[in-house]
Design goal:
heterodimer, A: alpha/beta, Rossmann fold, 5-stranded parallel beta sheet, 3-stranded antiparallel beta sheet, 8 strands, B: alpha/beta, 4-stranded parallel beta sheet
Chain lengths: 190, 329
C-alpha cells in the first residue's frame, strides 16, 4: 500500500493534485514487461515463484506481471496473492490505520520465492510491515521486491530488487501509479 | 474519556457496516496457520465479568490475544468484591494499573456506561442486564451476511449490507429479559431487515415504544413459512423468566422450534441462537444440529468481530478512535 493511498484515504485524507506525467501507460507496460523478464532471469525460471501485490496500489501491477510471466512461459500460471499490511504497520496509534481490503494469499508460502509488488517505494515502512506479515504465512525461501517507482527517502535499510523507474522527489510530493501511467503531484488537505 | 461501545444505537448503519468490513480482514487472520497480528502490541485489555459466561468471555479474550494485546482476567467471585469492595473502587484500582480497555459484563443495565464515566479507558459492553449485548448483535449480522454471500457464490467481503434489506427475521422467545434481542433488533433494523417479535405476552417488554420492529405475533406456526431467519432466544430462568410462564413444557409446545415446526420454515431459512442452548426448551436437540442451524458458526465469527471492535476502539490516534470517525462521517 503506497504512502499516497494512505494519505488519500479517509479519514483525514487529502486530495491528489497532479502536476507532471512521468510515465505513459505504454511506459508502464514496458517497465512491467522488463521487470517480469528480470524476475525470470534472476530466479532462473519461474519455479516456486509467487507474486504478492500490496493492497491496493501493488495489486493490479502484480496481476499484470503475473499475466506477462504466464505469456512468457507459454501458459504456466504464476500464483498471485494480495496482502494488506495494515495490522503490521508501525504507525498504529499514531494515525488511523484501516485495512484497505482483505488479504488473499493463494498458497502456503513455505519454501517459495515471494516477489512483493508495490507501486511506490518511499520510506520502506510498508515493506517492513509486509515482511513481518509474510512470516506468518510460512518460511519463504526468499523474498524479493519489485516496485514501479523508487522515489527515495528511505527510513529503513530496505532496497528494491526490480525497479520500473527511479524518480527523485521532494519528501512532500506524491507519486500516483496505475496502469494508466505515473504522475507526480501534491496532496492538498480536503 | 476514550471511545466505548456501549449500545448498538451509538453505531448506526454506517458504524455497523464499518465493523463488519474490518471483521472480514480479521476473519482472514483467523484462517492463517499463525492467526495472530501485532496490531495492539503493548495495549492491555481487562475482561471484567461480574456474571458468568463461557463464549463471550473466551471470545473476547481470544480476540484480544490474537491482536497481541495483554489480557487481564477479573472474576468477581475470586476478588476483593467478596470483601465488600464496590464496583467503582474495583474498577479504579484496575485502571490505576494502566489499562486501555475494559470488556464488561454486569447483571445491572447501564453498568458499562457508568463505568465508562469513571475511567479513561475504552469500555466494551459485553452484556449488561436486560439492556444490550452489542457484540452479539454484530456477530449475528456478520454470520447472516456470510451465509447470504456464500449462497450467492460471493466472497463475504464483496457483499455489502444491502443483503439485509427486506430480510424477514423473527426473534422468538424471552424478549423481555433479553439483551441479545434488544441489540439484535436495533442492528438488524438499522441495516434494513424487517423484524417480527414472536413471544407470549408475558415475555414481551411492558412497552415496545421505540423498538424498530415490523410487528408482534403470538403465533409462531403462522410466522414460520414467511421467514428468512428464525432467531431463537434462550429462556432466561436466572432472570425470572420461569415465573412468567405456566411451565417450560407449555412454552415449548407453543414457541419451541421442534422438528415439526422447523419443517414449516422455507428451505433457505436460517436458524440462529445466541447460546447457551436449552436443548428441548426453545429449540429441539435435533434442530440445533441441522446444517441450517448456525449456532457454532455464530461462535466462530465472534472472535473476528470482537477483534474488529477492539481494534477500531484501541488503534485510533490521539485525535480519536476510528469507530467514532466513521460514525460522524
Amino acid at each position: 500500500m503506497a504512502e499516497r493511498e494512505r494519505r488519500l484515504t479517509p479519514p483525514r485524507g487529502g486530495v491528489f493534485v497532479p502536476r507532471v506525467q512521468v510515465l505513459s501507460p505504454e511506459d508502464v507496460v514496458r517497465a512491467l514487461t522488463r521487470i517480469a523478464h528480470e524476475i525470470a532471469e534472476r530466479n532462473r525460471g519461474l519455479e516456486d515463484i509467487v507474486l504478492v501485490g500490496l493492497q491496493t496500489g501493488g495489486v493490479p501491477l502484480a496481476f499484470r506481471i503475473g499475466q506477462i510471466l504466464e505469456e512468457m512461459s507459454g501458459g504456466a500460471a504464476v500464483p498471485v496473492g494480495m496482502l494488506d499490511v495494515a495490522f503490521y504497520r508501525d504507525d498504529i496509534g499514531i494515525r488511523p490505520v484501516l485495512p484497505e481490503a482483505v488479504t488473499d494469499i493463494p498458497r502456503d508460502l513455505a519454501g517459495m520465492i515471494v516477489v512483493l509488488v508495490d507501486d511506490v517505494l518511499f520510506t520502506g515502512r510498508t515493506i517492513r510491515a509486509a515482511l513481518n506479515a509474510l512470516a506468518d504465512y510460512g518460511r519463504c525461501q526468499a523474498v524479493q521486491l519489485a516496485v514501479m517507482v523508487d522515489r527515495g527517502h528511505r527510513e529503513l535499510p530496505i532496497r528494491p530488487d526490480f525497479v520500473g523507474k527511479n524518480l527523485p522527489t521532494r519528501f512532500d510530493e506524491q507519486v500516483d501509479v496505475s496502469l494508466d501511467g505515473v504522475v507526480l503531484g501534491d496532496v492538498v488537505p480536503r | 474519556m476514550s471511545a466505548s461501545l456501549l449500545s448498538i444505537a451509538d453505531l448506526g448503519a454506517e458504524g455497523i457496516e464499518q465493523i463488519l468490513r474490518v471483521s472480514d480482514s480479521f476473519a482472514e487472520v483467523g484462517r492463517r496457520s499463525i492467526p495472530k497480528v501485532p496490531a495492539l502490541r503493548g495495549r492491555t485489555v481487562v475482561s471484567l465479568f461480574a456474571e458468568e459466561s463461557t463464549r463471550t468471555r473466551l471470545s473476547f479474550e481470544t480476540a484480544a490475544k490474537r491482536l497481541s494485546a495483554d489480557v487481564l482476567t477479573f472474576s468477581a467471585g475470586s476478588s476483593s468484591v467478596k470483601k465488600g469492595e464496590s464496583l467503582r473502587d474495583t474498577v479504579e484500582t484496575i485502571a490505576a494499573m494502566g489499562v486501555d480497555a475494559f470488556v464488561v459484563r454486569h447483571p445491572s443495565a447501564g453498568a458499562p456506561a457508568q463505568l465508562a464515566g469513571w475511567v479513561d479507558a475504552s469500555v466494551v459492553n459485553a452484556g449488561d442486564g436486560w439492556h444490550e449485548h452489542p457484540t452479539q448483535a454484530l456477530l449475528d449480522c456478520y454470520t447472516i451476511r456470510q451465509v447470504l454471500a456464500e449462497r450467492d457464490g460471493l466472497a463475504v467481503e464483496d457483499t455489502g449490507v444491502g443483503c439485509f434489506a427486506g430480510l424477514r427475521v423473527a426473534v422468538v422467545g424471552d424478549v423481555a429479559h433479553s439483551r441479545v434481542a434488544r441489540s439484535g433488533v436495533l442492528a438488524l433494523a438499522a441495516l434494513g431487515a424487517r423484524v417480527t417479535l414472536v413471544a407470549p405476552g408475558s415475555l414481551l417488554p411492558p412497552s415496545l415504544e421505540g423498538w424498530p420492529i415490523a410487528g408482534v405475533s403470538h403465533d409462531l406456526d403462522a410466522v414460520l413459512p414467511d421467514l428468512d431467519v428464525c432467531y431463537l432466544l434462550r429462556i432466561q430462568t436466572e432472570r425470572g423468566a420461569g415465573s412468567h410462564l405456566p411451565s417450560l413444557r407449555e412454552y415449548t409446545a407453543a414457541y419451541g422450534l421442534t422438528a415439526r415446526r422447523a419443517a414449516r420454515l422455507p428451505g433457505h431459512a436460517l436458524v440462529m441462537h445466541p447460546g447457551p442452548i436449552n436443548r428441548g426448551v426453545e429449540i429441539a436437540a435435533e434442530v440445533a444440529d441441522l446444517p441450517r442451524s448456525l449456532v457454532l458458526r455464530q461462535v466462530a465469527n465472534g472472535v473476528a468481530v470482537r477483534m474488529a471492535v477492539l481494534y477500531l476502539l484501541l488503534a485510533g490516534d490521539s485525535q480519536g478512535d476510528m469507530l467514532k470517525e466513521t460514525v460522524s462521517g
